[in-house]
């Protein structure tokens, strides 16, 4: 088969690698001029390496873990997870430690939190539809306001009452007061792993982009072609024979694809399909929303102010949402061990005042807020750099699920168009989830029939069968995958 893949991020490159390995003709179209990995790429500035966000390599799927090791092997290091929450001028270990919460919040506030939790359990919101409903039901109103509301609204730019409960159920599934207490007290229950509470993970020694740079090289060595600086403008479908053509932004057209695999944002992909999709599907695609992302990188000398991988900033007085310490992920991320490299993460909408701010002003803002938080002294900060990432997060606002349903139904009329990955499926997922969707699509193409539905892969890279049972990869995948 000749297969076109849109996007050289984790999902697209996984599909390309596996299909090339199976002997298919694969062409990957990547919009970035020179970097693969998508939002999982590793940027570089004056020898300093940094992520676009933090990317832990942890999965419950044996197939995904085996894939990572097949690609990178000994270049994967074990990283100890260490993170904190900054609230009211205090740092709280995350996962939360009961004794620390009581000490730092004080006995009165802690008691109020407990009573608020009891009230939520006695009088829960029936049929929770929003993120706020879901978290209040599981943690109580006061804990929601202290540890969830401010940060979440920074991330999404909309009130928590307008964010779908699906996001909470997906991203913090299994997390509750009971599981936090069990983790704090080292109590194991049925050996169930909750991703939010894991204490270690794998990480490429030169950042997540290393995984996808090596994957791209190995796929190319198996005759896959990866075209950089090749944004896709449109797709053309022919029924007889069933084939696809790809038109790029430079108006060049590539023809004869038996399958198209897309990890591109649905917002961009659907309007470019010909014959044109129905009006409801077109409107559904254009009605999807995305949150954009800015990393302000600050380089410091002899800072030693925090050793965590990252800190969540639950503080309304500053705009920064999270701060990464890249040397804590891997010491090889900095070229000089007397230096530190922090990534201050700002969430915005493309085109708004934050997005259009001059780089120098963003670096000044990041410096000011780092000093305000007490995480550095002015004389320690020696340089700065800015990276903007459009469409970093698909937004789970009210009504998004109905829009996706309309689009999925419409695509039944376009055989052999496969959607995978975070933006390709409008699912705010982790790498392993994206990788599993690509694996299943590759298996379908190898088999010549639809044996697996990638839409049934959940946040834990597990597959939901029709009867509700979960198995890694659905019908048991071959050990060779």
UniProtKB/TrEMBL annotation:
GO terms for molecular function: flavin adenine dinucleotide binding; UDP-galactopyranose mutase activity. NCBIfam families: PRK07208.1-1 (NF005545), PRK07208.1-4 (NF005548). GO terms for cellular component: cytosol. This is FAD-dependent oxidoreductase. It comes from Niastella populi. InterPro entries: FAD/NAD-bd_sf.
